[in-house]
């Protein structure tokens, strides 16, 4: 036995990945993700710790046993010592998106957006929101279709995604929310408005085509947003499929697949045969577990518009992703300088629902104006409060506009005739 992946060991020892990372942190062993490998002597040490703990307390892991592994000297004091040692992924290039974010989101050290572990633990977990990006025709919709087990691609005019859709998949690993975007448009517009709606980006690359311009763009977007990426090499069923070329091409972007010693998760799949799709879902869940995604269904509502459109029969429809809190039919919502009262809500399967909690995409009937992708949605106590909020926003906007005009005039004066 030699190097072992963290999640493999966690599985073997029947430990939660989060717990495994805690132990590693306690030992001062550095890693980039749960898919990083650890050295044999560290593995032995962890087994020892787990055996000593038995079913037990788990309070003791920050104390490393006397025989610290050779590659983790002196760092086993349990505080957030700069992660040294652990040459598990030696020449691995750093710039993978995962590598930029702190790998140990679940661990006790580090994230400043986390109030404290104690208060955080009271907030329930939420389902991950996954966006799928990639070059035209590489199979994004087909892959989602396979997951959803319905035929969305066949329903779309010309097989091209016409609008942003979102759906919830019930997998053996729990609920996963997927956003289907035309190319990466929605992702870009949403992000341009400062809202990060996706927790994980799947970059679909056709095995017979490898990296294309929109693939590179998609990767750049995911990196800029610091959203962890998982690569799905699609169309593996084709005789001309060449996954090795895809992996080599990725390496040239400094994205090094796991099997080449890096941390990039690459999953070969076929949207046609379903090969590898279960693995993909498993990697998504693993990643979500690592990110420790939580949201309070009892908190103040916050959401983002995924899509807005006019339906000939129903009128204005908006797909909104609930991020915090819970939406109810009858709630007043404010988007930009518009408001609406929720007359009806449907889930992504088209069923009527009365309320929707975090990480739920809902289609809302009740806005008078079509909201734009990426706009933030907030709720108001009643119609009066909604109007007040809009009035404040409108006046703020006019002030900004006036200030801009003023600045321009002053500039012109300074420049003289
Ligand atoms: P856009 O929405 O236009 O960007 O395309 P897309 O990435 O959503 O691709 P789409 O799912 O529409 O698939 C494009 C074509 O590739 C279709 O003809 C699919 O049938 C085909 N295709 C998708 N996945 C696979 C696959 O795994 N194997 C094979 N053989 N064909 C596939
Ligand atoms: Mg599509």
UniProtKB/TrEMBL annotation:
Residues 125-298 form the Tr-type G domain. Residues 64-109 have a biased composition (Low complexity). Residues 54-121 are annotated as: Disordered. Residues 110-121 have a biased composition (Basic and acidic residues). GTP binds at residues 134-141, 180-184, 234-237. Belongs to the TRAFAC class translation factor GTPase superfamily. Classic translation factor GTPase family. IF-2 subfamily. This is Translation initiation factor IF-2. The chain holds residues 1 to 417 of 622 of the full protein.
């Amino acid at each position: 036995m030699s190097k072992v992946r963290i999640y493999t060991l966690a599985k073997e020892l029947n430990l939660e990945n989060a717990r495994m990372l805690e132990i590693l942190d306690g030992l001062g062993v550095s890693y980039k993700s749960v898919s990083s490998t650890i050295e044999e002597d560290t593995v032995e040490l962890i087994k020892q710790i787990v055996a000593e703990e038995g079913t037990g307390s788990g309070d003791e892991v920050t104390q490393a046993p006397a025989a610290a592994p050779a590659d983790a000297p002196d760092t086993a004091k349990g505080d957030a010592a700069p992660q040294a040692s652990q040459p598990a992924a030696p020449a691995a290039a750093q710039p993978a998106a995962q590598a930029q974010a702190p790998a140990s989101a679940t661990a006790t050290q580090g994230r400043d957006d986390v109030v404290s572990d104690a208060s955080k633990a009271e907030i329930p977990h939420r389902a991950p929101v996954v966006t799928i990006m990639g070059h035209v025709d590489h199979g994004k919709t087909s892959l989602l279709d396979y997951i959803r087990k319905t035929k969305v691609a066949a329903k779309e005019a010309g097989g091209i995604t016409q609008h942003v859709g979102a759906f919830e998949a019930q997998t053996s690993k729990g609920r996963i929310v997927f956003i289907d975007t035309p190319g990466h448009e929605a992702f870009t517009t949403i992000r341009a408005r400062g809202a990060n709606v996706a927790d994980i980006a799947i970059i679909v690359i056709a095995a017979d085509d490898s990296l294309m311009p929109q693939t590179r763009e998609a990767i750049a977007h995911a990196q800029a947003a610091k959203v962890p990426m998982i690569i799905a090499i699609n169309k593996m069923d084709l005789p001309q499929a060449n996954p090795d070329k895809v992996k080599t091409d990725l390496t040239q972007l400094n994205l090094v697949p796991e099997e080449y010693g890096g941390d990039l998760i690459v999953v070969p799949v076929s949207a046609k045969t379903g090969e590898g799709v279960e693995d993909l879902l498993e990697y998504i869940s693993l990643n979500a577990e690592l990110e420790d995604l939580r949201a309070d269904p009892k908190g103040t509502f916050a959401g983002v518009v995924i899509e807005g459109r006019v339906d000939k029969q129903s009128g204005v429809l908006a797909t909104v992703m609930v991020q915090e809190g819970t939406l109810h039919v009858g709630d007043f919502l404010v988007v930009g300088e518009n408001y609406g009262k929720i007359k009806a809500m449907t889930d992504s399967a088209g069923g009527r629902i009365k309320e929707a909690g975090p990480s739920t995409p809902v289609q809302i009937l009740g806005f008078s104006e079509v909201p734009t992708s990426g706009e933030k949605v907030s709720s108001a106590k009643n119609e009066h409060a909604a109007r007040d909020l809009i009035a404040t926003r409108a006046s703020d906007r006019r002030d900004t506009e006036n200030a801009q005009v003023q600045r321009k005039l002053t500039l012109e004066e300074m420049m003289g005739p």
